[in-house]
Each structure stands twice: as C-alpha cells, then as structure tokens.
Amino acid sequence: MDFRSDTVTKPTQAMREAMANAPVGDDVYGDDPTVNKLEAWAAERHGFEAAMFTTSGTQANLLGLMAHCQRGDEYLCGQQAHNYKYEAGGAAVLGSIQPQPIENNPDGTLDFGKLKAAIKPDDSHLLAPSC
Ligand SMILES: Cc1ncc(COP(=O)(O)O)c(C=O)c1O
Hints:
This protein has 131 residues and is mainly α.
C-alpha cells in the first residue's frame, strides 16, 4: 500500500472489471445509470439534495469555489491547501476569485482566530470574502 496520495493508488483487477462492465449512457441526458447511482449514493450519504460527479478533485474544488463566489471575491484557505498550492491557481485564473491563504497549524488545521482576523471589512475598495 502506498498512502503518499490517492493519485498513486492503482485499481485492483476487480476494480478494473467493475469499471469495464459498468452500464454507461449519456450523462448530459441523465442516461448514465452508473453516474446516477453514484450521485444518488453521494447525496444520500452526505445529506444533500443532490450530488454531481466530477472527473477530478481539481475540477470539484474549482466548481465548489465558483458556485459559492462571485468574480472579485476572496476565499480563505490554508497555505498548504491543495486548491491553493497545487491546482495551478484555477480559482484565480478561471474564476477571478482571489485566495487569502492563512498559515496552517502544525496538524494541518486552521486557527479560527487567524481566519477571523483575515476577513476584510465590508468596503467596496477591498475584496469581500464570501466563501
Ligand atoms: C486534497 C486533494 N484535493 C484535490 C486533489 C486533486 O485531485 P485530482 O488529481 O483528481 O485533480 C488531490 C489530489 O491528490 C487532493 O489530494
């Protein structure tokens, strides 16, 4: 087992067979039973009305930010956050959303005091964090 990252994990033979044999369809029309099942399972498991399958974590993070922020907004995140450090600045490049990185605690968590201190006042000259 290699726990450096989910991205180095290789599928087992059973996983490959499940993928190859999965019923498929056009997801745009809602005709992919496997995607429909996965989305229904994820929504139920996390207590949401609906869920959406994305093809990568980077895509999911970007969609999440863009769903919550408007152009010119700012989001608070950890200096070590994947979406800040490793995702090619997608939020800024594609969403016009500026990150405001906060130093992470040694265990990776974020200090609420530091987060609160980084929230800018509601002033049209400043960015207004909304996510
Ligand atoms: C926490 C976290 N977010 C996002 C990603 C990006 O996922 P993807 O490589 O599927 O874009 C990774 C990838 O390892 C991750 O560990």
